[in-house]
Write a structure and sequence with these properties.
The chain is an alpha/beta fold. It has 15 helices and twelve strands. The strands form two sheets. Strands 1-2-3-5-8-9-10-12 form an eight-stranded parallel β-barrel, surrounded by six helices. It has a two-stranded antiparallel sheet with strand order 6-7.
């Protein structure tokens, strides 16, 4: 199992600190640094900035929003980043959610599975530097009733194949990630519930005659180091409450549904009820410690090492850490070092 770093969003006054985190991870031998986007900082600009100031660590999008770019533009961006980084780019994609897709990008959140399939097809076609011709339900290239012509990407990526990942939560999307992608970007990953998710991915792999060999299972997990695991959980409560309670509508919140599938139905309802009525402190207080302990790395180096052993046994291949929940920038850098020591102690490093 390798270690990764999730740098989250930029532009909130944390740019210099985030860059230093990426450089620290690079120095420590972390495999990849991921960057997110929602409706603030865009990921490609940040990834280019990080790649220019690191040496070995891969840089990855977690995620590029599918409704935010045409598939051809996504392929252009991926090829450019792979070239600028010297072959260190990983392409993570996701459909986002209905509120962002329709409210920010003006793209209907309809048939996300079919849209993702077509999007992936076109990106791969372009990155193979073939002429892009596609006749799908959501994408038709070139348009049949105008002057458009089938074009070929003019930029050569450094690598023959850029690794592609899908951010997925629901069973059908997990199956799609196994069928079409090289890895899965997971959130609120619990080793106790991993088997069901990996079974869905495995079913997708089987569809195309593949096994799980070589497939990258990449959960992002908050990490807070300290003597008291329960105290370590407190800084993460707002993050869990935001996703489970407020990342979507009452009728369609994928993270709330995930918490329900994990056995936290009553808590998920309570968190959402509080969050949607803007009782944010109450929503955070309603997040069960057991949920946080299952989906985060909390406590001493020794306790984190034990959790790493369990995660590796459950199928995790790249454990991506999010250290930005507690402490100063220097303390967060120290957390990255502690994680390396914990991985060595666990004996599951790759």
């Amino acid at each position: 199992m390798k270690l990764g770093l999730n740098l989250g969003y930029w532009g909130g006054g944390n740019d210099a600190d985030n860059l230093r985190l990426a450089q620290t991870a690079d120095e420590l031998g972390y495999a990849v640094a991921w960057v997110a986007e929602a409706y603030g900082s865009d990921a490609p600009t940040v990834l280019a900035w990080v790649a220019a100031q690191t040496k070995r660590i891969d840089v990855g999008s977690a995620i590029f929003q599918i409704p935010g770019r045409t598939p051809a533009n996504c392929a252009m961006t991926a090829a450019t980043l792979d070239t600028l980084s010297g072959g260190r780019f990983r392409l993570g994609l996701g459909v986002s959610g209905p509120q962002v897709s329709e409210g920010w990008h003006g793209v209907r959140f309809d048939k996300p599975l079919a849209r993702t399939r077509e999007y992936s097809d076109i990106v791969k076609l372009a990155l193979r530097r073939e002429k892009v011709q596609y006749d799908g339900q959501h994408y038709v290239l070139p348009l049949p009733d105008g002057p458009g012509k089938a074009l070929r990407l003019t930029v050569y990526p450094v690598r023959e194949t850029i690794p592609m990942y899908l951010a997925a939560v629901g069973p059908k999307n997990l199956e799609l990630s196994g069928e079409l992608f090289d890895g899965w970007l997971a959130i609120f990953f619990s080793a106790d519930h991993a088997s069901a998710s990996l079974a869905s991915i495995g079913a997708g792999r089987a569809k195309v005659g593949k096994t799980m060999a070589g497939f990258d299972v990449v959960p992002t997990m908050p990490i807070v180091v300290g003597d008291d695991p329960r105290a370590c959980a407190d800084p993460v409560r707002w993050y869990a409450a935001l996703y489970v309670g407020g990342m979507g509508s009452r009728e369609k919140n994928f993270y709330n549904q995930l918490a329900v599938r994990m056995g936290f139905e009553d808590a998920a309802k309570s968190i959402q009820d509080h969050y949607l009525t803007r009782e944010y402190d109450a929503a955070a207080a309603a997040v069960p410690y057991d949920f946080l302990d299952a989906t985060c790395l909390l406590g001493s180096k020794e306790r984190i090492a034990e959790r790493m052993q369990v995660l590796a046994a459950s199928g995790v291949t790249t454990l991506t850490l999010s250290p930005g929940f507690d402490g100063s920038p220097a303390e967060q850098q120290a957390t990255l070092r502690t994680a390396v020591e914990a991985l060595e102690l666990a004996g599951v490093g790759d």
